Amino acid sequence: MKILYQIWAVIVMNVRSLPSRFWMSFAAVFAVAVVVGVLQAFLAMSDGFKATLSGTGSDSVAIVTREGSQSELNSVLSRDAVNSVSEAPGIAKDADGNPIYSAELYVVVDGLKRTTLTEVNIPFRGISTKGFELRDSVEITAGRMFNPGNNEIIVGEGVLNQFTGFELGKTVRFGKTEWEVVGVFSTGGSAFESELWADARTVQTQFRRGSTFQTMRIRLETPGDVSAIEALIEADPQLNLTVQTESNFFSEQGDALQGIVYFGWGVSIIMALGALAGALNTMYTSVASRAGEIATLRAIGFSNTSAFVGTLIESVMLAVIGGVLGTLAAFLYLDGKTASTLGGSFSQIVFAFEVTPSLIKDGIWMAIAIGLVGGVFPAWRAARLPVMVAFRNAA
Description:
With 395 residues, this protein is of the alpha+beta class. It has helices at residues 2-16, 22-54, 79-86, 129-133, 157-162, 200-206, 227-235, 246-254, 258-289, 291-299, 304-334, 357-383, 388-394, and strands at residues 61-66, 101-113, 119-127, 139-143, 152-156, 163-164, 171-174, 177-186, 196-199, 215-219, 241-245, 338-342, 348-352. The protein has 2 domains: 2-54 and 256-394, no CATH class; 68-239, no CATH class. The protein contains 13 helices and 13 strands. Strands 1, 2, 3, 4, 5, 6, 7, 8, 9, 10 and 11 form an 11-stranded mixed β-sheet that branches. Strands 12-13 form a two-stranded antiparallel ribbon. Helix 9 runs parallel beside helix 12 (357-383) and helix 10 packs across helix 13 (388-394).
């Protein structure tokens, strides 16, 4: 118990001396706060992007693309291929006994980002009424559904939030063709809200795609089981296709932002080295300014362990304060904020930043690590401070 009392006494002494070292201590706290805030900004972006994509896919739906294609944009399916796959076993049937599937087009069109007015690529999907049945939580929130055969589009809520020119009732031009915005839809925050939707056959005509499609979505009889469809594709050498569940497909698309995570950690580690230098400087200054006090405590019987632990705890405490401030700033300014970035098809996907408990934990642990490394050497110096310093200062 004696050693705990001594450690507590050293901690109290250190805290009471903080006002005399306010600006030096503030610099160390600020440096740690910036490091943690930057780290959490990158990770919140990555987690938000992945959450948007993970909420897009379903195990009850399979997606068919051309073999080797990395995204919907560079996939091509012929009408014959669509007809052949639609006869595969394992596909759910509607009340009339017809297979439930949707052959869809996926093209990109130009748009303007609302905040910067810079040109971006926006996904434009040709879809049928069956395509609505294959997506959960689709709801027209304003206006109405497009009429097949007309140049009418409905826009996702994410498009309205991030891009300008797609408001309800507006007429937009893609190439030489004009389209009227007749409705706004929501899909519960999934990546589909980053798209424009129109009648598939109209998109085929206006974009001169003949009878080809990009993808085919299929309702599965058994969620997650695509083996029967795979068997049909493998049995026909003319079908150069691949099939997977929609959830797996979008999970792979989320890997496109994995480089951001590595970059974020790299930048944060480099910045952490700067914060570490600041912490070392702060703590060495702290020990130097209290050399007489520390040596006096040693002279009256305080152990070197109490000086070491008390000084180290001061360093960790300052770092944790910085970590909490950085986390708080990230949460207040980023959590729930919508943004857009390039997806796997080089088109914009709207997502929301997510500062999750896991990210908060990572930030605090990084702050603690900075405090420990930044405090251990000054704490060792405090523990080894000669007792004669106290008498020299007294003289």
